[in-house]
Amino acid sequence: MQDLPSFDELRAMAEQAPDDLEALRLSMSEAIISNASTEMQPRLRAQMSHINQVIAKGKNPNHTNILLMAELQVQLKRFAQALNAPETLTEHQAKIMPFSPPSKKQEVLPQQREE
Predict the structure, then answer these.
(1) In whole angstroms, what is the distance from residue 79 CA to residue 42 CA?
(2) What is the DSSP string of 63-96?
(3) Alpha helix segments (H runs only) across the chain
(4) pLDDT, tens digit (0-9, with 9 covering 90-100), for 72-111
(5) Where are the chain's structural domains?
(6) Burial class (CB in 10 A: 0-12, 13-18, 19+), 25
(7) DSSP assigned state of 60
(8) 71 with 49: CB under 8 angstroms?
(9) How far is the C-alpha of 22 from the C-alpha of 45, rounded, in Å?
(10) Cα dist. 112→41, 53, 104 in Å?
């Protein structure tokens, strides 16, 4: 497995070659996932996909860090909940309601609206 470059090297990559830094992040993540047990790999890939989606929402590096920190806080809260009160993880049930399409009276086409 590849060693993580020093902080100074990572900072230089972030400033001068952000695409190379992103490629490094992805390749090291893939190496970690590949070295995990086959049972854990699907979960790790799903987590990686979620992280990539959070990163994609970032407007700039600071915004991305804030989004990732918020996601980490959600995960830590869930982890603490699993340790301290595991029964609360499954106590919420969704209320399933039948779908009823809108009636003809409720449908208003844009050209029928009065302005």
Answers:
(1) 19
(2) HHHHHHHHHHHHHHHHHHHHHH-GGGGS---PPP
(3) 7-16, 18-35, 41-57, 61-84
(4) 999 999 999 989 988 887 776 777 888 877 776 655 555 6
(5) 1-40
(6) middle
(7) S
(8) no
(9) 17
(10) 54, 40, 13
